[in-house]
Design a protein that fits this description.
This is DUF8009 domain-containing protein. It holds the Pfam family DUF8009. The chain is α/β, with parallel strands linked by helices and 138 residues long. The chain has one domain. Helix content is 33%, strand content 28%. Helix 1 runs antiparallel to helix 4 (92-114). It is elongated and about 60 Å long.
Length: 138
């Protein structure tokens, strides 16, 4: 029997494309970080679920955190709509319009990101990098 605390037992991660897109957008738009989390006991096929945190507890829990940008194609990640600097000199009437356009752009980006999930990802383990397949659910 394999060590249930050893993430190298994982061969594939099942994840929701919506969770991946939501986690990336959350981290870009909010304090804290959203990841796709896998918790022990580990086995060949695991489900990765969205997890938001402000303090990384992986050393205490043994969980594996997969960054959402690792499971979304690089060119889509690079195309995330940026709000930074657009509100700096905007008057209040323009600010609301800019925020609305940005929210719409993020929604459109999330739809593209859900279609751009990669086939495999490398997770960090105590034994070194470990490549696993990605299986979409939902």
């Amino acid at each position: 029997m394999e060590d249930e605390d050893d993430p190298t037992a994982i061969r594939s991660l099942a994840l929701s494309a919506e969770d991946a897109a939501d986690a990336y957008a959350y981290t870009r738009e909010n304090p804290g970080e959203a990841v796709l989390r896998v918790t022990p006991p580990f086995h060949g096929r695991m489900r990765a679920r969205i997890h938001v945190y402000r303090r990384d507890d992986t050393e205490l829990t043994g969980a594996v955190h997969v960054r959402p940008d690792a499971v979304i194609a690089d060119e889509v990640v690079a195309d995330y709509p940026d709000l930074e600097g657009k509100l700096d000199d905007a008057d209040p009437s323009t600010t609301e319009r800019i925020r609305k356009r940005h929210a719409e752009a993020v929604e459109e980006w999330q739809a593209r990101a859900q279609e751009a999930i990669v086939d495999a990802v490398t997770i960090d383990t105590d034994a070194g990098p470990h490549r696993v397949e990605i299986k979409r659910v939902g």
